[in-house]
């Protein structure tokens, strides 16, 4: 889910920063009649989905000591037992521990449409027993919650999709097109990213009209009450830069005006005072349009004012004071690390900072590097690019642009809005721009429009992905099972 984004490959520590949506009194009232969608699940479906969830949580799929293949094989067996032909199931990957499962639910082909691909990662972030109240690799139900590593990110969705595939198969449902489920390795870390590997080695197996990725999106709740239902439709690009000022140094008893630390500090001061330009795209425009109906007063007015042509600069300035809105309206670059000097009584020979950027769709790290050089405006401060995969520092940042957002397609959005309205009435669907990155970066780069859609609700105050005592509300899980079952039917019912 956006501000709480379920996965971020590059900097796990920043995952799922929680969005703090202000709820209006009116909205809170609207939400009082919480529909118990979980009631729609019959006992058999609840048992099945719980069993699969438990099985997945208890298979350790961490990069260090876990095994993704074991989980992929277990889910393959579940699908085989439910009647999926072996020919429509494939377990494959670059090495023994990092095999991915690709399952194809055959459609009638009546609509002449390309398949829908759903991607879910099976791997989880490391978890240490001593940090947790319960064993992170034991599925524990306690006080209305399921506990275990992956209950939020994202074995819940792995289990939900496998369950719904089985339910649809058992009832003889025939989609009008193929639905492909890929359960994959190494989203959180490791070097064998399953989505990337499948695209490079078996594109035919997973080629699709569009991608659904339940790793982001989701129902945003405050104390269990739904506020909005989020659809992640585009992502910012991550980039780190290293700013360095070098100097011959010397004895600190005879300081010179030319000082590495002062050069760097002045450069960072200029960066602080030089916000990147305001820019909206189709997704962030839709975001502000919907948010304007949830907010009130000046904030709602400002949201409408930034949508006008030309946008109102004062409204932009006021909204920019809120980090959520600021990061939605522009590329951001911020100092995150600082070092310099080598002795208390010596002039510094080196001063260095890391600047972390989140780049808007349509722009490249190379472009941002040039912007930084211009903002720094000091030939004594170099601006170099830090490669995230290796940590190597290079002179030139990549020219590859963050992908422009995919269209908000009616064939994806309309059925989503319909089901969301049935299950969470009063909570609007709000398109989001993710400020991190999920596996959708691979499918988007491969030219397949990708959407973060998930029917699991996590409370604003209960985001624990990557953290200790990760847990998910039991009802929220069953709602998630119900949601994808209904949504897949709505997407693929013969027209
Ligand atoms: Zn994730």
Explain how this protein is built.
This protein is an alpha/beta fold. It is 34% helix and 21% strand. The protein has a six-stranded mixed beta sheet, sandwiched between helices. A five-stranded antiparallel beta sheet has the order 12-14-10-15-16. The protein has a four-stranded mixed beta sheet with strand order 17-9-8-19. β15 and β16 form a beta hairpin. It is globular, with a radius of gyration of 24 Å. The N terminus is likely disordered. Zinc ion binds next to loops.
- Global outline: globular
Q: Total helix count?
A: 15
Small-molecule binders: zinc ion
Which runs of at least 5 residues are low in confidence (pLDDT < 50)?
1-38
Number of strands: 20
- How far apart lie the N and C ends? 31 Å
| Estimated radius of gyration | 24 Å
The residue fraction in helices comes out at: 25-40%
Percentage beta strand: 15-25%
């Amino acid at each position: 889910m956006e501000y709480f984004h379920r996965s971020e490959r590059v900097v796990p520590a920043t995952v799922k920063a929680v969005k703090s949506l202000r709820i209006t009194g009116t909205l809170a009232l609207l939400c009082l009649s919480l529909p118990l969608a979980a009631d729609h699940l019959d006992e058999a479906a609840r048992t099945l989905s719980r069993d699969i969830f438990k099985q997945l949580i208890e298979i350790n799929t961490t990069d260090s000591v876990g095994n993704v293949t074991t989980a992929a094989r277990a889910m393959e067996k579940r699908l085989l037992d439910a009647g999926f032909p072996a020919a429509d199931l494939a377990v494959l990957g670059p090495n023994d521990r990092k095999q991915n499962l690709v399952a194809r639910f055959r459609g009638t082909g009546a609509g002449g449409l390309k398949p829908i691909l759903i991607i879910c990662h099976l791997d989880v972030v490391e978890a240490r027993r001593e940090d947790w109240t319960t064993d992170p690799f034991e599925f524990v139900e306690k006080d209305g919650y399921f506990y275990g590593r992956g209950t939020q990110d994202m074995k819940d969705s792995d289990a939900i999709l496998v369950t719904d595939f089985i339910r649809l198969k058992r009832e003889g449902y025939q989609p009008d097109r193929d639905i492909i489920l890929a359960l994959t390795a190494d989203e959180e870390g490791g070097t064998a990213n399953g989505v990337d590997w499948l695209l490079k080695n078996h594109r035919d197996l997973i080629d699709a009209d569009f991608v659904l990725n339940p790793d982001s999106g989701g129902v945003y709740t405050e104390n269990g009450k739904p506020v909005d239902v989020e659809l992640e439709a585009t992502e910012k690009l991550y980039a780190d830069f290293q700013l360095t000022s070098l100097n011959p140094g010397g004895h600190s008893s005879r300081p010179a005006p030319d000082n590495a630390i002062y050069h760097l500090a002045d450069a960072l001061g200029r960066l602080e005072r030089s916000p990147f330009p305001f820019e909206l795209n189709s997704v962030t425009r839709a975001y502000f349009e919907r948010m304007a109906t949830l907010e009130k007063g000046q904030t709602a007015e400002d949201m409408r004012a930034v949508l006008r042509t030309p946008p109102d600069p004062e409204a932009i300035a006021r909204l920019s004071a809120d980090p959520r809105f600021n990061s939605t309206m522009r590329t951001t670059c911020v100092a995150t690390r600082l070092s310099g000097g080598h002795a208390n009584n010596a002039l510094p020979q080196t001063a260095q900072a890391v600047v972390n950027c989140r780049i808007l769709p349509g722009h490249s790290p190379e472009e941002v590097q040039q912007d930084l050089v211009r903002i720094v405006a000091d030939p004594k401060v170099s601006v170099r690019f830090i490669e995230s995969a290796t940590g190597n520092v290079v002179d030139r940042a990549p020219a590859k642009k963050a992908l422009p957002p995919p269209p908000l397609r009616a064939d994806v959005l309309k059925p989503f809005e319909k089901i969301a309205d049935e299950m969470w009435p009063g909570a609007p669907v709000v398109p989001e721009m993710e400020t991190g990155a999920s596996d959708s970066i691979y499918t988007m780069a491969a030219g397949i429009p990708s959407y973060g859609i998930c029917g699991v609700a996590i409370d604003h105050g209960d985001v624990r992905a990557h953290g200790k005592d990760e847990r998910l509300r039991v009802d929220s899980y069953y709602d998630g099972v119900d949601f994808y079952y209904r949504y897949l039917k709505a997407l693929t019912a013969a027209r």
